[in-house]
């Protein structure tokens, strides 16, 4: 093990500021496959933690398991001047249950942006780490960056088309705490435009069991979604760029699964390219291999957009679900991924009951089971049942997965903007 010490960047205001202290960053190397390791953290002068343990990854395993979500945040056990995310408590509780049930099977967590919503307050980052300790002390906690870790008007990456969507969601962090509090593989970096060190943990790849985590392989992952049927117009310029520049790469590289956060709901789409569901090959037309898109930003942050209303009845609370959207829900929770060489299974677990509310299975053969489009419309919508199969062409490799952290600090609506525009709806009031 080797260690490094960092001092985190100060918050951008003096309110609520405190010295963040030191962060000790150790790297364990030469771990044996699939072994349980026991460890403590601390020092002789400051005291030692309880003994924790984890099971190391095993690339020879026939099964890979992961827990996936975005936009979780943290919740303080007291009232404070910063609004926190109560739902995050329940999400961690159920993931902890699932990890416990796995016994000695290795697994990992992937949190796809909008991590703690600390927005410059070190004590909220600390609160976040206390909260995830029951799981993060046992399994790897993988992250990619979201707007609430990075966004700030002075950040250097600011294309002209983004002027309407940039804001202050990062609270002046500019990605610095995100970069220093997590240690992801790779050496990508982006200047902060300040004296602070560059933002890191942007693009990287690594293998976990059957899953290859890396750019443009079997699945990809980003924060702001390419597809959503929420009424979220502010990010439209970004979605247009994703569709124009990224989607052709996803399709060309036969990416099977695209995971997105940012919208604080769960939504599953058919395999998509340019808003068109992949061909079923049912009428002897050529099968088309398109990525299945999942929006999984439902881990804890409870500011939710409404679904898109009818274009000519914008004020009526009727939200038609387009055919490409096969399941959408407002329950908070997470996605459980189980991969073996034959099948990739993704289950949406609600944090109100710990139950599975939606399932999609992607076979190595290319079949997508569940949420099936037929010539008569959508079969199995909202039922979580495997009624028939949908063939899409997929990559010929049997590695499952690969995530891209698409970073570039795009903005989501601020709470204040949300209140004034009335397009984001709080699930509960501030007083709750
Ligand atoms: Fe976000």
UniProtKB/TrEMBL annotation:
Gene3D superfamilies, sorted: 3.60.21.10, Purple acid phosphatase-like, N-terminal
EC number: 3.1.3.2
Cellular-component GO terms for this entry: extracellular region
A Pfam family the protein falls into: Pur_ac_phosph_N
Cofactor: Fe cation; Zn(2+)
CDD domains: MPP_PAPs
Positions of the Calcineurin-like phosphoesterase domain: 91-266
Taxonomic superkingdom: Eukaryota
Record keyword Secreted present: yes
Purple acid phosphatase N-terminal domain mapped to chain residues: 19-55
Regions that span the bilayer: 390-411
Subcellular location: Secreted
Quaternary state and interactors: Homodimer.
Name of the protein in question: Purple acid phosphatase
């Amino acid at each position: 093990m080797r260690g490094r010490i960092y001092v985190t960047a100060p918050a951008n205001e003096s309110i609520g500021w405190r010295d963040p202290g030191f962060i000790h960053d150790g790297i364990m190397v030469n771990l044996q496959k699939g072994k349980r390791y026991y460890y403590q953290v601390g020092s002789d002068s400051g005291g030692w933690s309880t003994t924790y343990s984890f099971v190391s990854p095993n690339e020879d395993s026939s099964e890979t398991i992961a827990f996936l979500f975005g936009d979780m945040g943290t919740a303080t056990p007291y009232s404070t001047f910063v609004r926190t995310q109560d739902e995050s408590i329940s999400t961690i509780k159920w993931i902890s249950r699932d990890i416990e049930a796995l016994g000695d099977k290795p697994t990992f967590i992937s949190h796809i942006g909008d991590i703690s919503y600390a927005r410059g307050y070190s004590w909220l980052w600390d609160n976040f780490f206390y909260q995830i300790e029951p799981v993060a002390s046992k399994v790897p906690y993988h992250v990619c960056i979201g707007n609430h870790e990075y966004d700030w008007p002075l950040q250097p990456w600011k294309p002209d088309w983004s002027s309407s969507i940039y804001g202050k969601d990062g609270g002046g962090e500019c990605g610095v705490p995100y970069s220093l509090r997590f240690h992801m593989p790779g050496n990508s970096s982006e200047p902060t435009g300040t004296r602070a060190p560059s933002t890191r943990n942007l693009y990287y790849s690594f293998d976990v069991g059957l899953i290859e985590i890396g750019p443009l392989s079997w699945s990809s992952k980003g924060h702001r979604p390419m597809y959503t049927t929420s009424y979220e117009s502010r990010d439209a310029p970004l979605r247009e760029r994703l569709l124009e520049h990224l989607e052709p790469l996803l399709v060309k590289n036969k990416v099977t699964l695209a995971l997105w956060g940012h919208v604080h709901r769960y939504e599953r789409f058919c395999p998509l390219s340019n808003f068109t569901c992949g061909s079923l090959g049912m009428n002897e037309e050529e099968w088309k291999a398109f990525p299945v898109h999942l929006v999984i930003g439902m881990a804890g942050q409870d500011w939710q957009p409404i679904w898109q209303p009818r274009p000519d009845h914008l004020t009526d609370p009727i939200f038609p679900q387009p055919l490409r959207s096969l399941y959408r829900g407002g329950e908070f929770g997470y996605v459980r991924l189980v991969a073996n060489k034959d099948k990739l299974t993704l289950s949406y677990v609600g944090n109100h009951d710990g139950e599975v509310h939606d399932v999609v299975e992607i076979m190595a053969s290319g079949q997508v089971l569940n949420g099936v489009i037929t010539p008569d419309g959508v079969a199995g919508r909202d039922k979580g049942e495997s009624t028939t199969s949908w063939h899409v062409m997929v990559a010929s490799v049997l590695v499952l997965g690969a995530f891209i952290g698409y970073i570039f600090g795009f903005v989501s609506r601020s709470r204040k903007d949300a209140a004034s525009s009335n397009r984001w709806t709080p699930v509960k009031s501030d007083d709750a």
